[in-house]
Task: inverse folding
């Protein structure tokens, strides 16, 4: 399943790996983050890959988002008591029947190298 976001959607992704400002790093299976949707609903999603400037998330089933929605990406490390909250723009949404993949770009902020390292550890 590694590289699912990149492999399945590279043809539709407007920023193929070679053209990204920063490369995406794959995240171990099972890392959850929350999204606060435009409807103010908060949902947990699985983080698939991440960079300083964006992320790909996965939710089993459907997710009430569309391209250009603004959502809040929130990652928490309960052991360390730290939290990262970034306003994000939905760049693309792909439904596979069983899963919904969402490409996000962080708005007016980026993920620090320290926070990025904690997410992919």
Result:
């Amino acid at each position: 399943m590694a590289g699912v976001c990149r492999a399945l959607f590279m043809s539709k992704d407007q920023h193929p790996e070679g053209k990204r400002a920063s490369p995406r790093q794959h995240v171990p299976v099972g890392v959850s983050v929350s999204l606060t949707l435009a409807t103010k609903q908060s949902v947990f999603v699985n983080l698939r890959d991440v960079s300083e400037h964006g992320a790909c998330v996965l939710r089993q089933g459907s997710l009430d988002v569309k391209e250009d929605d603004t959502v809040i990406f929130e990652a928490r490390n309960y052991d360390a008591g730290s939290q990262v909250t970034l306003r994000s723009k939905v760049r693309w949404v792909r439904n596979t029947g069983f899963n919904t993949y969402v490409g996000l770009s962080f708005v007016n902020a980026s993920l620090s190298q320290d926070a990025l390292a904690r997410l992919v550890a």
Notes: The radius of gyration is 13 Å. The longest strand covers residues 82-95.
